[in-house]
């Protein structure tokens, strides 16, 4: 039997069509059809200046826009050899990690929703809202920030931000236990996710799966630590790995576990960054005109979905000659067919939820 | 291994494959398209290289009368070194061996390059358009691409001309 899931379906997290070939209720093949959200990101980039690219990156992965900004400016600064002021680096890390928490909250909330747990979704959105409020306070936007610029930031943080942020962390840290009680210790959730959609490490690496999905399969790789950028090498944090505690290594439950543990690690990083935040001017390194020298660069950073890479080729003009975005969710989705074969249709929904895809980034 | 050693190793194994190009950076190597599949297998299996992670494949169009390129960024999780391979292809008949069965990431990334540049990856088991509709005409990311006026009666918005931005 051939079954169409989507393009308009709540569990596809966007506009995605899956053509599922089944034998009874067992999946034998999945063909994803993409492109419903294709906005010609890369073509547009060749016609606009580097400054104008940043708002476009916001709209690629609209769940974690700060991290998308971050990836782009890191690549640009490496290409132009700009040294950014200390204060800017610290603020960037704080924002990126806050956005990582917000993104993981959304991912886990909707993952729970996909397998039938409604309450954690509401709890997580309640707390995500607070993070969005902080972003609004900092740059005026709740979802699409255009906050990090090449060489600096659009605004400095308000004077009471540190206090509000650490207040939030104090409020938020105990909540992780609450989420775990709602999902990790929930028998139905465990039954639906443990041992389901097992992704062996070699398959994950071969498909280019990265980020929490890769670490869920037990591969110890995090760009923040292993190809360190910005000032991540100054902070102490653990890299949570899947261990197959409930089922086998690399199942949906492990991917849940890695994400929820990463939230705690992000809190650690933010606390350290708030503590070390130096005073100073944020605008010193902002170039008047962004004109990178001729050359090319491929730089990847750790977005909440994995290795977010930008390949930028400059011909010395104010517009990119070529700009390619290597989107982590694109690679994560490509593995769906391989790990879903042999599972029930309802398990496909759980697997898709555990991969945490964002269609805005896949289709670009 | 450092980039120089990697380059030495590859040029010792495949003496005719490397294209000399002064403008490249240290970790970049330009190769001729002919023996690409063999070299790719070598990159994956040779224990001194063991590039298990293909990070990204980028298609590039160098200009209207110039070549098309396919650029591969490799990384080894085991040995923690990286490499970029550049392969230039003739614009009129861009053809290259597919590495989709060596690194599965190649599957969708090659489809995307086919979609945007029209580079045909020989040996790819399912080479279709991926982001654009199946009946779309032309290769949009080529520099000489002209946007069609309409698609099934829908007007295609034009990208603003350069002068309008200044």
Question: What does the secondary structure layout of this molecule look like, with pairings?
Answer:
The complex is a heterodimer of chains A (about 375) and B (about 170).
Chain A (H helix, E strand, L loop, with lengths): L1 E4 L2 E2 L4 E2 L1 E7 L2 E8 L7 H5 L4 H9 L6 H16 L5 H29 L4 H21 L8 E2 L2 E2 L7 H12 L2 H8 L4 H7 L7 H6 L5 H5 L6 H4 L25 H25 L18 E9 L2 E9 L7 E5 L1 H7 L1 H5 L4 H11 L3 H5 L1
Antiparallel strand pairs in A: 1-4, 2-3, 4-5, 6-7, 8-9, 9-10
Helix pairs in contact in A: 2-3, 3-4, 4-5, 4-12, 4-15, 5-6, 12-15
Chain B lengths: L2 H11 L4 E2 L8 E4 L4 H10 L7 E9 L6 E8 L6 E8 L5 E3 L8 H12 L2 E3 L27 E2 L2 E2 L6 H4 L1
Parallel strand pairs in B: 2-5, 6-7
Antiparallel strand pairs in B: 1-2, 3-4, 4-5, 8-9
Keywords:
heterodimer; A: 364 residues; 14% strand; B: 5-stranded mixed beta sheet; 4 helices; 22% helix; elongated
Write up what this structure looks like.
The complex is a heterodimer of chains A (364) and B (166). By secondary structure, chain A is an alpha+beta fold. Helix content of chain A is 48%, strand content 14%. Chain A contains 16 helices and 10 strands. Chain A has helices at residues 41-45, 50-58, 65-80, 86-114, 119-139, 161-172, 175-182, 187-193, 201-206, 212-216, 223-226, 252-276, 328-334, 336-340, 345-355, 359-363; strands at residues 2-5, 8-9, 14-15, 17-23, 26-33, 148-149, 152-153, 295-303, 306-314, 322-326. In chain A, the strands form 4 sheets. In chain A, strands 1-4-5 form a 3-stranded antiparallel sheet. Chain A has a 3-stranded antiparallel sheet with strand order 8-9-10. Chain A has a two-stranded antiparallel sheet with strand order 2-3. In chain A, a hairpin with a 7-residue loop joins strand 9 and strand 10. Chain B is an alpha/beta fold and 166 residues long. Helices cover 22% and strands 25% of the residues of chain B. Chain B has helices at 3-13, 36-45, 106-117, 162-165; strands at 18-19, 28-31, 53-61, 68-75, 82-89, 95-97, 120-122, 150-151, 154-155. In chain B, strands 1-2-5-4-3 form a 5-stranded mixed sheet. In chain B, strand 1 (18-19) and strand 2 form a beta hairpin. The longest helix of chain B has 12 residues, at 106-117. Chains A and B meet through helix 1, helix 9, strand 8, strand 9 and strand 10 of A and strand 3 and helix 3 of B.
